[in-house]
Specification:
The protein is of the alpha/beta class and about 150 residues long. It is about 30% helix and about 20% strand.
Length: about 150
């Protein structure tokens, strides 16, 4: 897995391996609690081909690691998603009713992975990203996790 630092907030995909390493070496639990809280606010990247009711991580899909540059200033979530898909030359399906209408997105980065860009744009939206084997993406409403 290739991770590079970018000048934006940590994404769930970039941050998760850091949390694993931090936990393994006995880092303070305050940082770990913050990492878990951040991870639960962003989208999960899930395999669309998984059996119903089964959660399969797809965060290593090649399509999510494509690199793009973004210059978004005060755009809607819908507009941000369209720009990400245009720049990354990918397809994403979603129902606009899942997206907030009043939220303005501003994100300027020279290089960011598709996964990190989607995490920034979809933070606290309550959706996950389903990844098909061919690389097509779909936003799906996040289901309540079993306790």
């Amino acid at each position: 897995m290739r991770c590079r630092a970018v000048s934006v907030s940590m994404s769930v995909l970039v941050f998760a391996p850091v949390v694993s390493v931090a936990l393994a070496v006995g880092a303070p639990s305050v940082g770990s609690a913050q990492a878990v809280a951040l991870a639960s606010r962003g989208p999960r990247f899930l395999a669309a081909w998984a059996e119903p009711g089964r959660v399969v991580d797809a965060s290593n899909a090649a399509v999510l690691w494509r690199r793009i540059a973004l210059d978004l200033a005060g755009v809607t979530v819908d507009e941000a998603l369209k720009e990400i898909t245009r720049l990354a030359d990918l397809e994403i399906s979603y129902n606009r009713t899942l997206l907030p209408t009043a939220r303005a997105i501003s994100l300027q980065v020279r290089e960011i992975s598709v996964a990190a860009a989607l995490t920034e744009v979809l933070l606290e939206v309550g959706v996950d990203v389903a990844v098909a084997r061919g690389g097509h993406l779909a936003l799906v409403k996040r289901m309540a996790e079993a306790s």
